[in-house]
Amino acid sequence: MNYADLFRATLPETTLEIAALLVLVVDLAFLRKAAQSVRNTSAAFLGILGCAAAAWFVPLERVSLDGPDGSALLGAGGFTACAQLGILALTVLCLALLIDSLFTRHVGEFVAVMLMSAAGGLIIAAAQDLIVIFIGLELLSLGLYILTAFAKKSAKSAEAAIKYYLFGGMSAAFLLFGFSYLYGIFGTTSVLGITGALSEGGATPALLFVALVMIAAGLGFKVAAVPFHLWAPDTYEGAPAPAAAFIASVSKVASFALLLTLSTHWLLPLGPLSGPRETLGARVADDIRTWMPWATILIILAAVSMALGNLAALAQTSVRRLLAYSAIAHAGYILLGVAFWPGPAFYVAGGFPSRALFLRSTNAVLYYILTYALTTIGAFGVVGVVERATGSDKLDSFLGLHKRNPVLAAVLLVLFLSLAGIPPLVGFWAKFNLFAAVLAVGAGPVPFTLVALAVAFSAVSLYYYLQVLKRAYVMPAADESPIRTHPVTTIVLVLIAAAVVILGCFPSLLGDWIQSFYR
Amino acid sequence: MLSFAIYLSFAGALIEALLPRRNAALARTFALLVAVAGLAIAVAGFFAGAGQGLVVITDMPWVASMGIRYTLAADGISRVLVLLTGLAAVAGVLFSWNIEHRTNEFFAFYFALIGGVYGVFLSYDLFLLFVFYEIAIVPKYFLIAIWGSTRREYGAMKLALYSFVGSAMVLIGLLAAYATSGSHSTGLVALAHAGLPLSFQMWAFPLVFVGFGILAGLWPFHTWAPTGHVAAPTAASMLLAGVVMKLGAYGCLRVAIGLFPHGLDPWGFSYFGIGSWRDVFALLAVIGIVYGALVALAQTDFKFVIGYSSVSHMGFVLLGLVTLNQIGVDGAVLQMFSHGVIAGLLFAIVGRIVYDRTHTRQFADLEHMHLSKRLPFAAWAFVVAGMASMGLPGFSGFIAELQVLIGAWLTRPIWTAGAGIGIVVGVAYTWRALQKAFFSDLPPAQHIHDHAHALAPITWPEIAGVSLLGAATLLVGVYPRILLDQIEPAVKALLAGGLQ
Fold first, then answer.
1. What gap in Å lies between CA A368 and CA A351, rounded to an integer?
2. What's the DSSP call for residue B458?
3. Residue B268 lies inside a defined structural domain of this protein
4. Quick check: A470 and B160 CB within 8 A?
5. Which of A169, B18, B273, B401 is most buried, judged by most C-beta within 10 A?
6. CA-only gyration radius of chain A, Å
7. How far A85 CA sits from the closest chain B CA (Å)?
């Protein structure tokens, strides 16, 4: 490794950091006296430019940046590139929704922190080394704590940030603890190195299991999986709307990209599977003994998240908390896809891992998380507008929305029905694709029961999404004064809703795009 | 060509949503135009398809990587049901002529529902069929919750959740069939020929049959139907009973029986004469027939009578389906059409012609109103519809229920006996409703008499709608060949296991 390589490999992250500094300079040096709307617009615009520039530099070919000992630190290409571009695109949407926000005067700082967090997300998506993973996670998380606390006049915002920070610190400690065990067992921090050492055997399963549980706890926190979800409702409720949208989308995409990296390496033994059949069989048996715990942990997290997320959402009266619990439920569905990864089980069944199957599972998970993130940003956009107009995010503040702002109500209708998984919207297709991939990977009573559970819970979810839509469309409202929106907000929200409809009708558009990263 | 009925309806929904909010006349005129155009396409497609068997309308890859195709095709069964949908859509618009509140939105949801229904009847890919099936669920919720009457939010939510639970069961079956078949296709034909293992069909069949059966009013999952029908505005009850319940029955036939025919095979053991899923569902259907009829007999609300009668009549459809013989399934499909028309007519009379004028549906109040004298048109329309509903010869219900009964007799005579009881009770509740609502000679009650002069005259859309539906049931009753010529070959092909 030399510094030129490092620079090239981290060019997108560097671009984001430079853009962050630029936003700060412009906002604080030139625009301090300017009107708030000008400051908002300029900061968001510069941030969007920064994201676009970073996207330009995202490496598409499969390369890896190697550390001094020759093991990979950062990967590129494949689903990494796809997740990175997704992160940048979602950041752009969050920034666009910031334009008419009024929760802070220090919008320059807000945008700068958001961009730095996004840089952390890019690192996580690419990380191939435990230390780099940790640095990326911290870079992302620290930014998120600040963003959560940004509405300084709101006590809820401060409370949410403290809660988020405490839980986050704790889970980071868990993660680090797990990583240290892995290092202790294998003597390397490289994800690939660990896989390699493992296939040679000699690990202590008990210690390994402890390490994996700790790591799952740390990552379970990031994706808000039960029982590490406790921060989510409070944070979603207290954070300013653009920050909540960012947490619900970008941070989720980055964390799931990391989970994909880990699952890919830790469920797929590395190296060409040549050699006599007996050796292969023995190796497979070893793999199952050692790495199945990872899948088992993920399955448990997935099942509990689906159940608790959906059931708890039924009882919510705040739409933000409702979205938080629905996010937990959706995390459960996605974890199911990650848990049933084309891993060792396949070698037993088919003899060889199927690349087509691997691609299909990757595609399904990425498809789900990207479209979910898109939908949820739109949902927070609508919640943000309604909140500004009515002063609350309670269910009842959505009363009569179809009269007060028909466009907003239509967007809400599309987004929430998509979250509930109603065709022809993209949420349905994402679910179908994911569950079909799970069943293709694991054919047996366990995956089947889990999928049936997931489908059953998505039927439950329709109830709470309809609770919001019922208020927007059905129930009479006391206040029918129109709600005004900034034209940019309207355009962004309509575009998101249109994307949800179009991708739902033509799912191949996004599917082929994701697939194109593997050619 | 039939596929344009789908696109036209969705385009109509979109345009209605964008029409100016205040201009109700424009919205309903446009709605009538769209519905009539849809009916014209359905009629033309019906006659163009005569004697042609299965006609593939559109077939192109949709999601190539998953083997999902956008396949629209129509055989005789589809064409009959599309025709029914066209009729119901026009009649529904005519009986919604007095909707003044959020008119354009009403018709937007209305046509989204109609488009989904057309789509289900024309889909020949399981995934596509499911998509259209779910599209039809959400508009029902809003139609009932916004424009409905008695306990509308409760009825709407109950209906939406029952439907969604049913469709979740179907989705599980769809995913499992897709994964199990390994054929990498969701086409109905490909799945039918995939040779799904018997053990799989044995549990997939009841899952999917119940999933669709919920929407078809399968006892004991029928409870959404009466509350939903009663809560719904007239046009929505007409559509619910007229075509949406048929979606469920159609799914039972096309998907459950078509894809998992061996799920109906005997288990190899039997308790109390029940030795296969076929016996189980026949029993549930017969219970539905008798139970629906008996409960209808005890109602005090006019609309609940019709609501429960729908459960009873749909029991005939389900019974006909599980007879698995030519005449029984023919009868089931014909009964779908017949009940669609007759239930539409009954709901129109109760909901639009009577309730919108009297503002009560309680027999206790109607008995004092002498409606046969004050609304003779309604009374005579109900006499005709009631006779059709009872299954009198000369109406479509007669030939349909007769075929179902013959089919049941050929399989298990005891089923026919059970269903026969339902027919007798059916006569009783219809006469009772007719007598109490229209021909009672109790003295006029004072508080009602005060408003006696307020009954508005019958309007032309009502006359047109009643004539349309009444003519349809009479025509099919007098000359059932017009439908049976198309139904019979399609049923034959389906029963032979060749979905082609």
1. 29
2. P
3. no
4. no
5. B401
6. 22
7. 22
SS3 content of chain B, % helix, strand, coil (to 5): 75, 5, 20
Whether residue B270 is contained in a domain is answered as no
Tell me the chain A residues in contact with residue B179 when contact means C-beta distances shorter than 8 Å.
436, 439-440, 443
Q: Is B146 on the interface with A (CB under 8 A)?
A: yes
Note the pTM of the prediction, 2 decimals.
0.90
Residue B177 forms part of a structural domain: yes
Query: Which one, of A92, A435, A137, lies nearest residue A249 by Cα?
Result: A92
Strands B55-63 and B68-74 turn out to be antiparallel
- Chain A residues within 8 Å of chain B (Cβ atoms): 360, 363, 402, 410, 417, 422-424, 428, 432-433, 435-436, 439-440, 443, 448, 451-452, 455-456, 458-459, 462-463, 466, 470, 473-475, 507-508, 511-512, 515
Please tell me the distance from the alpha carbon of residue B203 to that of residue B195, in angstroms, as a whole number.
15
Rounded Cα gap, residues B244 and B248, in angstroms: 7
* Chain B CB contacts of A459 below 8 Å: 161, 164-165, 167-168
* CA-based max dimension of chain A: 76
Question: Shortest Cα distance from A513 to chain B (angstroms)?
Answer: 12
Any A CB within 8 A of B153 CB: yes
**Would you call B142 an interface residue with chain A, using a CB distance cutoff of 8 Å?**
yes
Looking only at the bridges linking them, the beta strands covering A72-75 and B55-63 are: unpaired
Nearest by CB to A456, which of B146, B153, B168? B168
pLDDT tens digits, residue range B341-379?
999 899 888 888 888 777 778 887 777 777 777 788 888
Contact A439 B176 (CB under 8 A): yes
With beta carbons under 8 A apart, name residues in chain A contacting B65.
Answer: 360, 363, 508, 511-512, 515
The answer, for B172 touching chain A at a CB cutoff of 8 Å, is yes
Which chain A residues have a beta carbon less than 8 Å from that of B171? Answer: 432, 455
| DSSP notation for A491-519 | HHHHHHHHHHHHHHH-THHHHHHHHGGG-
| Residue A427 per-residue DSSP state | H
Q: Give yes or no for a contact between B170 and A458, defined as CB atoms under 8 angstroms apart.
A: no
The ipTM assigned to this model is: 0.88
Count of Cβ atoms closer than 10 Å to residue A493 Cβ: 28
C-beta separation of B20 from B68 below 8 A: no
For residues B362 and B301, the answer to whether their CB atoms sit within 8 Å is: yes
**Nearest CA of chain A to the CA of B165: how many Å?**
6
Whether B478 is in a domain gets the answer: yes
B366 with B302: CB under 8 angstroms? yes
Domain count, chain B: 1
B135 Cβ under 8 Å from any chain A Cβ: yes
Q: Which of A321, A405, A324, A411 lies closest to A375, judged by CA?
A: A411
Number of CB pairs < 8 Å for A and B?
79
H-run or E-run covering B84: helix B76-94
Name the residue type at position B345: L
Q: What is the pLDDT along chain A (519 residues), one digit of tens a residue?
A: 677 878 888 888 999 999 999 999 988 888 878 888 888 888 888 999 999 999 888 887 777 777 777 777 887 777 888 899 999 999 999 999 888 877 777 888 899 999 999 999 999 988 888 999 999 999 999 999 999 998 888 888 899 999 999 999 999 999 999 999 888 888 888 887 787 776 666 556 677 778 888 888 899 998 988 888 889 999 999 888 889 999 999 999 999 998 888 877 765 543 333 344 455 556 555 555 555 677 788 888 999 999 999 999 998 889 999 999 999 999 999 998 888 777 544 444 444 446 677 778 888 899 999 999 999 999 999 998 888 888 888 888 888 888 888 889 999 999 999 999 888 899 999 999 899 888 887 667 778 888 999 999 988 898 999 889 988 888 888 777 888 888 888 999 999 999 999 998 888 888 888 888 876
